[in-house]
Amino acid sequence: MIRFFDPTEPAGALLYAGVFVLLGFCLSWLMRRMVAAALRHDRSEHIDQITLSFLSHLLVLVIWVLLATFYAHLVPALNRLGTALLAGVSLMSVILGFAAQTTLGNLVAGISLILYKPFRRGDRLQISAPTGLEIGAVEDISLGYTVLLTDDGRRVIIANTTMAQQTMIKLAASPPRLTPTEPPAESSA
After folding, report:
1. Residue 189 pLDDT more than 50?
2. Measured between alpha carbons, how far is 138 from 124 in angstroms, rounded to an integer?
3. In what order do the strands lie in the sheet with 145-150?
4. How many CA atoms lie within 13 A of 82 on its CB side?
5. How far apart are CA 176 and CA 126, in angstroms?
6. Domain limits, the chain
7. Per-residue pLDDT for 187 more than 60?
8. What is the rounded CA–CA span in Å between residue 112 and residue 3?
9. What's the CATH code, domain 119-170?
10. Is 45 left (phi over 0), alpha (psi -120 to 50) or beta?
């Protein structure tokens, strides 16, 4: 009977594998359930669905990697594999970090823009763009880019690292209406 709980025996290793897989499914289900509950209870669009979905998938991936690493360290025959897995993940993150510096910068800036909310969907902003000063309403905020809809119908797409680093001016909710003015009176001189 003790053989079934000993991770050095094949039966014990399989039992622990089953427990870790079951734990992984339960934690993944719980994570998805929490995300669904957060989205269901948020009627005011304070929580961005895309970001929450992305973060939940990322957390599920982290859960599975951690469980696989813990299992590999628990079973002595896989102990070296667990150490190699940790070293491989560390090396891979450094390589991916260097290769995708700009993309990861946009991702981190997008998450911070969504969390700190310096502006929201529908806010009118004045920003500095390569074409000069642009004024528009925030149409969308994704993890990588922010989209402004200008008054003349153009869409200006700005990388989130740029949005996070520049000074923006929040303007009135709608563009000021121009009232017809009377033509200047001609002066007879």
Report:
1. no
2. 6
3. 155-159, 145-150, 132-141, 124-129, 169-170
4. 14
5. 14
6. 2-99, 119-170
7. no
8. 50
9. 2.30.30.140
10. left
